[in-house]
């Protein structure tokens, strides 16, 4: 019997060494090397052969070299989850053999969303839900509280990756859920569960199993205190789709955003409402972000942002107040703070409005995070409205990128944004001139502007 080989892997960056040393020369961290026992070549070959037999595809046929033109371009069939917002974020449904990673803060609803999805799919497909953090009684109590039909759902309480794959080979599920990847462990890795080495090896083992058997794999991932996914960065490279479920404890709404998707659009957004019966999809997200008061307030304006493959109307609020500090504050919620400082400089230079002695606060209502530059013009008009204490019309919609020389630049999908505003009853839109549609839209006055001064004249 051959002696098992060992290696030492850094828990911080994943670099490996043949012997232990105090400092990782790749990332410079101290005391981060963990011993990893290397498996023999016979064990993986045997297990891989079993995977191939389960899939019913010969290994020799899979490994033969072909030219790119010979590859079959027929689209892979997708499995609908019956939840429209989840299907939208996934790019149209589940792809056989894909690995999906769902992350989020504790209590965001990751396990609830997957439990709802699998209870429905279990009525027509073989599925397996593996829980390593909760007992089977806890999961059963949640399903009963949510009123789910769970008679066909197969459950397994296990943290060993080898045991999970052995059970999966017997049951042959179409969909496999691992809740969560941070508690899973591989026997050949000597570090504790949750470490970089364990998470990396467990994810690689399960992903290889999913690819070779055509199983849809869901991995639930924890996040750190700053909101990033816990574990090695290579985990996000292994999987096909990375989703993030976000939501604050004081709000019943949850947003599901895709940060990586090999089968659909990136930054696609799905909106859910947390109710007593679980997560319910919100089919018209713009309606929940436009719950404005009956009277118009200064500093409030509606803008249209593009989320994945659809427009989304959100309200933006600004508050400008005299500062009593030597260094006035610039606070943003849902926007990039450095961009606010740049826009205030443009407003001073090309709009004739100096806010150097004012505190400026900007907030995107509803907890939506705006990552694109189409909100620039709306931010400036809201700041001017608050500074002058003059409310803008509640039937006004604004979008456009503002350049450093005061020009208004066009944004992508401009006409689709304008049609979305017209559908919700807006009467006037201030947009970049290049985004003005050629054909007039009934009931909506579209004003195209090329300079910041022109937009200020309109209000």
UniProtKB/TrEMBL annotation:
<feature type="region of interest" description="Lon-protease-like">
    <location>
        <begin position="359"/>
        <end position="459"/>
    </location>
</feature>
<comment type="function">
    <text>Plays a role in repairing double-strand DNA breaks, probably involving stabilizing or processing branched DNA or blocked replication forks.</text>
</comment>
<keyword id="KW-0067">ATP-binding</keyword>
<dbReference type="Pfam" id="PF18073">
    <property type="entry name" value="Zn_ribbon_LapB"/>
</dbReference>
<comment type="similarity">
    <text>Belongs to the RecA family. RadA subfamily.</text>
</comment>
<keyword id="KW-0863">Zinc-finger</keyword>
<keyword id="KW-0227">DNA damage</keyword>
<dbReference type="InterPro" id="IPR041166">
    <property type="entry name" value="Rubredoxin_2"/>
</dbReference>
<dbReference type="GO" id="GO:0140664">
    <property type="term" value="F:ATP-dependent DNA damage sensor activity"/>
</dbReference>
<keyword id="KW-0234">DNA repair</keyword>
<dbReference type="InterPro" id="IPR020588">
    <property type="entry name" value="RecA_ATP-bd"/>
</dbReference>
<dbReference type="Pfam" id="PF13481">
    <property type="entry name" value="AAA_25"/>
</dbReference>
<comment type="function">
    <text>DNA-dependent ATPase involved in processing of recombination intermediates, plays a role in repairing DNA breaks. Stimulates the branch migration of RecA-mediated strand transfer reactions, allowing the 3' invading strand to extend heteroduplex DNA faster. Binds ssDNA in the presence of ADP but not other nucleotides, has ATPase activity that is stimulated by ssDNA and various branched DNA structures, but inhibited by SSB. Does not have RecA's homology-searching function.</text>
</comment>
<keyword id="KW-0862">Zinc</keyword>
<dbReference type="InterPro" id="IPR027417">
    <property type="entry name" value="P-loop_NTPase"/>
</dbReference>
<dbReference type="GO" id="GO:0005524">
    <property type="term" value="F:ATP binding"/>
</dbReference>
<keyword id="KW-0378">Hydrolase</keyword>
<keyword id="KW-0346">Stress response</keyword>
<dbReference type="Pfam" id="PF13541">
    <property type="entry name" value="ChlI"/>
</dbReference>
<dbReference type="InterPro" id="IPR020568">
    <property type="entry name" value="Ribosomal_Su5_D2-typ_SF"/>
</dbReference>
<feature type="binding site">
    <location>
        <begin position="104"/>
        <end position="111"/>
    </location>
    <ligand>
        <name>ATP</name>
    </ligand>
</feature>
<dbReference type="GO" id="GO:0008270">
    <property type="term" value="F:zinc ion binding"/>
</dbReference>
<dbReference type="InterPro" id="IPR014721">
    <property type="entry name" value="Ribsml_uS5_D2-typ_fold_subgr"/>
</dbReference>
<feature type="short sequence motif" description="RadA KNRFG motif">
    <location>
        <begin position="260"/>
        <end position="264"/>
    </location>
</feature>
<dbReference type="GO" id="GO:0005829">
    <property type="term" value="C:cytosol"/>
</dbReference>
<dbReference type="InterPro" id="IPR004504">
    <property type="entry name" value="DNA_repair_RadA"/>
</dbReference>
<protein>
    <recommendedName>
        <fullName>DNA repair protein RadA</fullName>
    </recommendedName>
</protein>
<dbReference type="InterPro" id="IPR003593">
    <property type="entry name" value="AAA+_ATPase"/>
</dbReference>
<dbReference type="GO" id="GO:0016787">
    <property type="term" value="F:hydrolase activity"/>
</dbReference>
<feature type="domain" description="RecA family profile 1">
    <location>
        <begin position="75"/>
        <end position="223"/>
    </location>
</feature>
<dbReference type="GO" id="GO:0000725">
    <property type="term" value="P:recombinational repair"/>
</dbReference>
<keyword id="KW-0547">Nucleotide-binding</keyword>
<keyword id="KW-0238">DNA-binding</keyword>
<keyword id="KW-0479">Metal-binding</keyword>
<dbReference type="GO" id="GO:0003684">
    <property type="term" value="F:damaged DNA binding"/>
</dbReference>
